[in-house]
Design goal:
The complex is a heterodimer of chains A (252) and B (95). By secondary structure, chain A is mainly α. In chain A, 64% of the residues lie in helices and 0% in strands. Chain A is globular. Chain B is built from 2 helices and 3 strands. The radius of gyration of chain B is 21 Å and the shape is elongated. Chain B is of the alpha+beta class and 95 residues long. Classes of the chains: A mainly alpha (252), B alpha+beta (95).
């Protein structure tokens, strides 16, 4: 019974991470710096919505109460959302969006690669499909960071501004919840703690090549998995969920 | 973000193994690497291809339309360059 609840929370947490980031990325659609990048970013958003759908569908089945993926995504309030905070931060400027993307891409490449070995076959299959997408995302985001960091004074300034905010949110990616630990002990989930050293090394090396020092921030803002969010998520959900809230059950 | 750093690239896609790369269009990008990724997202997202070439448009040397008279047309009145111009002796039968 507990195991079932743990698995449900785990799946919804991962799905919330994906759907929230997807919505943020979709906000670039028609607002990209130029057409090609606009399309490319929207493609990444679509990858994340696909990932969220697979996870919500599975979560709905695990829950077994007749809710659909859409019910879970569109009919929960801010406090019921359990995404890690880094995903919900507003897109700000292009440098911020790409630096966030680079940080999560590095994370997901390793996280999903390990999740491919989950004893839960369905989860392993979702991870196997998703990790390929994340590897491509990283191939895109990584050169952007170099390009912006070594571009103009203005682009470097923007990268540094983005870093000053994002460094306070990356720590949460590596925090394990008690129920997540239980799942990890059973081989279902991945131990996030173990990814920290590799992630730090990767990020420090890349930023270091552009003479940007990255060190752990003393301030590590957390709370996403407990439903404690930044002030930004509520506004985002009101936009994302508007149609289902205003016209319940509407389909197209 | 200014577009002054963007170059135009021509995109060639191989739709299946064994076929030639065909010109499918062009796009803007910061670098050849970016051009390749944009081509992936703009031109093969519905599985239209298995391989992509990108070439900076400025690196293509092209024949000029206004030079057609000298460049292309002289080829039009030389039928003897076509195999069909020649009448084969009956004894050759099907060549």
């Amino acid at each position: 019974m507990d195991q079932k609840l743990n698995l449900y929370r785990f799946l919804v947490g991962l799905a919330d991470d994906s759907v929230v980031l997807s919505h943020r990325l979709s906000q670039w659609c028609s607002n990209g710096p130029y057409l090609e990048e606009d399309i490319a970013l929207s493609n990444v958003a679509l990858d994340y919505i696909g990932r969220a759908r697979m996870l919500y569908q599975y979560a709905a089945e695990v829950e077994g109460e007749g809710r659909s993926e859409d019910d879970i995504a569109y009919l929960r309030n801010e406090r019921e959302y359990t995404n890690l905070l880094i995903h919900e931060l507003p897109i700000n400027d292009f440098a911020f969006t790409m630096l966030r993307q680079f940080f999560v891409d590095v994370f997901y490449c390793e996280y999903l690669a390990r999740l491919c070995h989950s004893t839960d076959e369905r989860l392993a299959a979702i991870a196997a499909k998703s990790v390929k997408e994340s590897r491509y995302h990283l191939k895109r985001s990584e050169p952007w960071i170099k390009q912006l960091a070594e571009g103009t004074e203005e682009s470097l300034r923007r990268i540094k501004t983005a870093l000053a905010e994002l460094e306070n949110f990356v720590g949460e990616l590596f925090v394990m919840q008690d129920w997540e630990k239980e799942l990890a002990d059973n081989g279902i989930a991945v131990d996030r703690n173990q990814l920290k050293v590799g992630w730090d090394h990767y990020v420090q090396k890349l930023l270091g090549e552009s003479n940007i020092v990255f060190a752990d921030s003393q301030l590590q803002i957390q709370g996403g998995r407990d439903g404690i969010h930044t002030e930004h998520l509520g506004h985002m959900l009101s936009e994302m969920q508007f149609l289902q809230r205003a016209y319940p059950g509407l389909k197209w | 973000m200014s577009q002054e750093h963007l170059e135009i690239y021509e995109v060639f896609v191989r739709s299946a193994r064994g076929l030639d790369h065909k010109h499918v269009g062009s796009l803007h990008a910061e670098s050849p690497e970016h051009a390749l990724m944009y081509a992936r997202d703009c031109y093969i997202r519905r599985s239209e291809g298995v391989s992509i070439w990108v070439v900076e448009s400025k690196n293509i040397t092209a024949s000029q339309e206004d030079d057609k008279e000298n460049f292309v047309e002289p080829m039009d009145d030389k039928p003897y360059r076509h195999a069909t111009h020649y009448v084969l002796p009956d004894s050759v039968n099907n060549m």
